[in-house]
């Protein structure tokens, strides 16, 4: 099988005797997607140097030309959504429908920032002093390092790359080593669209090698991943006085009140907790249910869970694909043991599954009789794993929902406008959902968490300019 190199200064580069790693489909471990070169520290430095050399020319490229390049990227992604979506499903393990939808989202992101390229401007502000004018302008940060996860391999890469390029920056991307083929395909699309050599660079490898090297010698770093890694990167960034943007984990609550439309609430919980195999930062891992509807809700959710088909990501009848790898599957299984040891009751699922192809399959797991202080309710599991917490009323539900170190997404199911508005204003999270799953985002509005779930400026929409540009204020005597 061919070895795929790293994309540096407009070339696919493979060094002799370079270490490699294989990308394997989680739906079928016999299906090797590709073999990829690991970028060592020197190669990462070369990528950063290429980005540094190319950035001034890219920043001075007329905004119409930059906009048209981003538009071309979005157009090709949209035209090839079925083909690239199949790759996303094959390598990332999400259903084919989800894989195609993710490519569509990436296309939409590039289209959006093609427009933002033309709209990014400043202000003319009157001075407090006579005879002086004040102008503000947004200018690119410079070279931006990007580190992205495997759960949304093309969407998250796109919502970092697109604004960076739109506002005149150059980038070096390190994707997850679980999904390198998807990143490589995105870079081939960008090259065909006319992104100049050096403006966008791709380096593959594990975080402790490639990721650590990428955190040096850049002007800004955007990272999506775990809290422990995010904290290490934040410390490294502070030592270098560079800006950083972190989108981290969650332990997201979904509150179901007595007055909720129960069938709709069950669908919200099912979608939020288990779709995409629960491998979403915004997944509903804590289902906080008032006692009057608790038993009815649990029974209805268990019934719906039994109707789900867990199988190969490319099978048309699959509702939920595999876990991404053996390490993640083992971790989820350990948490099932933790839940039982803490006294929680596993009432549905949790068992490993065998399918016609060897893969990382498990039945979604549901615990009841849990307390919020249990580890399974305080630590992110990142899989098809949810627990139910019984509470007395809305006040206890809100208090329980906020009793966590995380604050990414939260939802409530209720027909009460009073409770919906109170929850929206008092929940400690970056995202608040009313009668909707906690997972599911638009591309033109901000995304960002509070507490341990996020640090730095929000991502997405026009708000991305706050991270990818800095403001300059000029005073001019008339």
Nearest-angstrom radius of gyration?
Answer: 23 Å
Give the count of structural domains: 2
What is the fold named in CATH at topology level of the largest domain?
A: Aldehyde Dehydrogenase, Chain A, domain 1
- The number of distinct β-strands equals 23
- Treating each run of at least 4 consecutive H or I residues as one helix, how many helices? 15
The shape is: globular
Biggest β-sheet strands, sense, barrel = 7 strands, mixed
CATH arch. level architecture of the largest domain:
3-Layer(aba) Sandwich
Low-confidence stretches: none
Strand content: 15-25%
State the helical fraction. 40-55%
Distance between the termini: 67 Å
Corresponding CATH superfamily of the largest domain:
Aldehyde Dehydrogenase, Chain A, domain 1
The first-level CATH class of the largest domain is given as: Alpha Beta
